[in-house]
Predict the structure.
Amino acid sequence: MNFDDKVPIYYQIKNYLYHKIITGTLAPGAKLPSVRQLAIDVTANVNTVQRALAEMITEKIIISQRGKGNFVTEDIDSIKHLKKALVTKQLSLSYKQLHALNLTDDEILAELKDYMKNRSGEHE
Amino acid sequence: MNFDDKVPIYYQIKNYLYHKIITGTLAPGAKLPSVRQLAIDVTANVNTVQRALAEMITEKIIISQRGKGNFVTEDIDSIKHLKKALVTKQLSLSYKQLHALNLTDDEILAELKDYMKNRSGEHE
DNA sequence: TATAGTGTACTAATGAACTATAACAATAGA
DNA sequence: TCTATTGTTATAGTTCATTAGTACACTATA
């Protein structure tokens, strides 16, 4: 996995799993790969994976069953809330950054549209 | 200074100074506070500040003169480029994140407008 | 010339994240 | 019951960011 060396790996693994859950790649109630397999998948250590999972278990996004495996919560509401929280957090972060660079709301919107436009040619 | 404990302090100091330079709070050619004063300002160690500055000196955004002080470059073009780079990087980052959460371009724009609208009531 | 203020460099110590490795606990199935 | 698979926990060692403290190099000025 491609890690940003400015952010803790366990934190990036958490986000990686968040995205899988929110997009439905990991459906509600679905079983996650074993911690050992996950460690291989993301090229990290079991302990590091476990640290990410531990936090998600505390948040009740993941339910852990010793001997069986880790499972995505079946509480669809909490997944929806998670998505909303992530979206808002991201928007807030970008907005603050761009605003701090002296861009007005309109300029931010214009820049974003421009970015999307230029990007539409280069779908990978 | 309010640091995000998920990102190295020296990196956040760099961004802090980038913003001052781009918004003109630190004008082209202006003298920066001394490293010791900066350390006090941002509540960090001199070495940490120096590490941030060292990178900016390498990038030629800051010109260092031993015994005199550190100065913002007078090359306005490179400041403009810096701003453009920061804006694009931020947009790219958010876009990828939100896109990965399965939001379409239109939804991203809608969410952003919504965010700005809700925010316009609570100017701090 | 002496002194204060500037950037720069170095050492040593601390703490956090990460890794390799191993062991333990619970479950499922042959 | 034995074995494989799962989650969980622990130890020890490495690397890196950060800090405190000290010292050195250069500049301006009284």
User: Anything to note?
Assistant: Residues 34-36, 47, 50, 53-54, 64-70 of chain A lie near DNA strand D (CB under 10 Å from a C1').
